[in-house]
Design brief:
The structure holds two protein chains of two kinds. Chain A is of the alpha/beta class. Chain A has helices spanning about 5-10, 35-50, 60-80, 95-105, 125-135, 155-160, 180-190, 210-215, 240-245, 280-295, 295-315, 345-350, 365-370, 385-405, and strands at about 20, 20-25, 25, 90, 115-120, 140-145, 165-170, 195-200, 220, 235, 255-260, 265, 320-325, 335-340, 355, 360, 375-380. Chain A has two domains: about 5-35 and about 295-395, Aspartate Aminotransferase, domain 1 (Alpha-Beta Complex), CATH 3.90.1150.10; about 40-295, Aspartate Aminotransferase, domain 2 (3-Layer(aba) Sandwich), CATH 3.40.640.10. In chain A, the strands form five sheets. Chain A has a seven-stranded mixed beta sheet, sandwiched between helices. A four-stranded antiparallel beta sheet of chain A has the order 13-14-17-16, with helices on one face. Chain A has a two-stranded antiparallel sheet with strand order 1-2. Chain A is globular, with a radius of gyration of 22 Å. The two termini of chain A are about 40 Å apart. Chain B is of the alpha+beta class. Chain B has one domain (about 5-140): Alpha-Beta Complex (Sufe protein. Chain: A), CATH 3.90.1010. Helix content of chain B is about 50%, strand content about 15%. Chain B has six helices and three strands; from the N terminus they run H-H-E-E-E-H-H-H-H. In chain B, strands 1-2-3 form a three-stranded antiparallel beta sheet. In chain B, a hairpin with a 6-residue loop joins strand 1 (about 45-50) and strand 2 (about 55-60). The longest helix of chain B is centred in the C-terminal third of the chain and has 19 residues, at about 120-140. Chain B starts with a helix and ends with a helix. The chains are: A alpha/beta, B alpha+beta. At the A-B interface, helix 12 of A face helix 2 and helix 3 of B.
Chain lengths: ~400, ~140
């Protein structure tokens, strides 16, 4: 089943703009995806028709906004196959979600307990845990990576022991695109009694995770990686875990009763949703999932794989070009360098040609350290990119090389 | 030549180019051709951190004028450094403190000096001015 690219591209007004006088070729989708009219309209409609605070008003607007916000929670629940809607905590994104769990989980740890991170992580899935370890006295262990950019699963098995309380890995590596074997990681962790948190930021725009089947204990998502707005995301947590964790932030909405002597907390999910949430963002998050499901994740996955294969083959023909992350099991992300050229120089010249890529360490310095490089050029594709754009991109890289060599 | 005279000279040179490619080719050439800094000054102390491209800066005072040397591991950044050094080096410290970098706009490279651009140049200019300030204080 192919995608109707012509129609899909007209859904995204930004794709027809020019950058530096050239038609935009947007290949920075791993940083943020673009927003279709269907989502932009929902955002405009919210502010034009029913902007109001939720869960407390007696008036019609408040009721309408509450209904739509809670409907979005149900949409999210259904999309990720989450058993209960109260297990869907709406947050500002993956970073917020991870910090929320790290804050609470730290209170359950004793000095000497162990937690496991992977070498393939984004800083957002490293730093909050280092902070947690400093507070709790827990020890951070690292699953090493291999040359092809995958996790060393043998080493992982050896790291697990009775002291291991939590394992946190990403579903997909932002810097390399590697898809990690989440089911296997989770099964092994659960055998020793450890919980598992999966950072799904880089997966959610490309594959449809079935969280019930994956059986992870926590899963995090950022809406802007799947055609939704920035500043919005979700944390899935199994009910038993969410009940164990203390609230992360205090404020309105998250309380049951407040007196100066003692405050009792609201039930899930509100216990973790202090203050007025990003109401419009939540509703738009739901609309973004509806949009992507109308295209279909099976079709998206197979089309993006086709784009990845096409772009990889073309780039591999360029002399001196090295791609980092060569596993077959990866999303449409190509991280590369060209012999001695600095990624910044290549990225700057590509920008002049209207081609948006990311350069640098991609907030994953441990991966760069592993390969002993300062950074890479990263092209990351979405379902609305075309093979013509891949051609423009590859020509652009060749042109940049000719100028820089 | 004064700072302003050097800047006008650079503006004139760049006015010969028709498009961005020629401008960038020239900058890359500048970047490649200039050994800008003595290796012994390429130390971690002289590095400007937090940027995608590394930038090193060093300053000396010779005959009451500040002499700058600098380098970068990215060649386009190095090209702009070469242009900046040409305007600021061998100038009295007060003139460096009074000088601006508006000419970069006129030669079509303004975005490289944007504070949001992670190439270290904005911090480098700050560092050049700090050196000038330190030497000016010595003169006073």
């Amino acid at each position: 089943m192919g995608l109707d690219l012509t129609n899909i591209r007209t859904d995204f007004p930004i794709l027809s703009r020019k950058v530096n006088g050239q038609p935009l070729v947007y290949l920075d989708n791993a940083a943020t995806s673009q927003t279709p009219t269907q989502v932009i309209d929902v955002i405009a409609d919210y502010y034009q028709q029913y902007n109001a605070n939720i869960h407390r008003g007696v008036h019609t607007l408040s009721q309408e906004a509450t209904d739509k916000f809670e409907h979005a929670r149900k949409t999210i629940q259904k999309h990720f196959n989450i058993p209960k809607s109260k297990e869907v905590i709406l947050t500002s994104g993956t970073t917020h979600s991870i910090n929320l769990v790290a804050f609470g989980f730290g209170t359950l740890l004793d000095p000497g307990d162990e937690v496991i991170v992977s070498a393939l992580e984004h800083h957002a899935n490293i730093v909050p845990w280092q902070m947690m370890c400093e507070r709790s006295g827990a020890v951070l262990r690292v699953i090493p990576m291999t040359d092809e950019g995958t996790l060393d699963m043998h080493a992982y098995a050896e790291l697990l022991n009775k002291k291991t309380k939590l394992v946190f890995v990403n579903h997909v590596s932002n810097a390399l695109g590697t898809i990690n074997p989440i089911e296997e990681i989770t099964k092994k962790a659960h055998k020793t009694g450890a919980a598992v948190l999966v950072d799904g930021a880089q997966a959610c725009g490309h594959i449809k995770p079935n969280l019930k089947k994956l059986d992870v204990d926590f899963y995090t998502v950022s809406a802007h990686k799947l055609c939704g707005p920035t500043g919005m995301g979700m944390l899935y947590g199994k009910e038993k875990w969410l009940n164990k964790l203390p609230p992360y932030q205090g404020g309105g909405e998250m309380i049951d009763e407040v007196t100066f002597e003692k405050t009792t907390y609201a039930d899930l999910p509100h216990k973790f949703e202090a203050g007025t949430p990003n109401i419009c963002g939540g509703i738009a998050f739901g609309a973004a999932l509806d949009y992507m499901n109308s295209i279909g994740f099976d079709a998206i996955e197979s089309y993006e794989e086709e784009l990845l294969d096409y772009a990889t083959a073309k780039l591999n023909q360029i002399e001196g070009l090295r791609i980092y992350g060569n596993t077959k099991h990866k999303t449409a992300v190509i991280s590369f360098n060209i012999d001695s050229l600095h990624p910044y120089d290549v990225g700057t010249l590509l920008d002049k040609m209207g081609i948006a890529v990311r350069t640098g360490h991609h907030c994953a310095q441990p991966i760069m350290d592993y390969y002993k490089i300062p950074g890479t050029i990263r092209a990351s594709f979405a379902f609305y990119n075309t093979k013509d754009e891949v051609d423009i991109f590859v020509n652009g890289v060749q042109r940049a090389i000719a100028m820089l060599r | 030549m004064t700072v302003e005279q050097v800047q006008n000279e650079i503006i004139e040179e760049f006015s010969l180019f028709d498009d961005w490619m020629q401008r960038y080719e020239y900058m890359i050439e500048l970047g490649k051709s200039l050994p800008l800094i003595d290796t012994k000054h390429k130390t971690d102390d002289n590095i400007i951190k937090g940027c995608q491209s590394k930038v090193w800066v060093h300053a000396d005072m010779v005959d009451e004028k500040v002499v700058f040397t600098a380098d970068s591991d990215a060649v386009i950044t190095k090209g702009i450094i070469a242009i900046l050094i040409r305007t600021f080096s061998n100038q009295p410290p007060q003139d460096i403190l009074d000088a601006n970098t508006d000419f970069i706009d006129q030669i079509g490279l303004k975005d490289h000096l944007s504070p949001t651009r992670a190439n270290g140049l904005v911090s480098m200019i700050k560092q050049l001015k700090l050196y000038a300030l330190a030497y000016q204080t010595q003169l006073n």
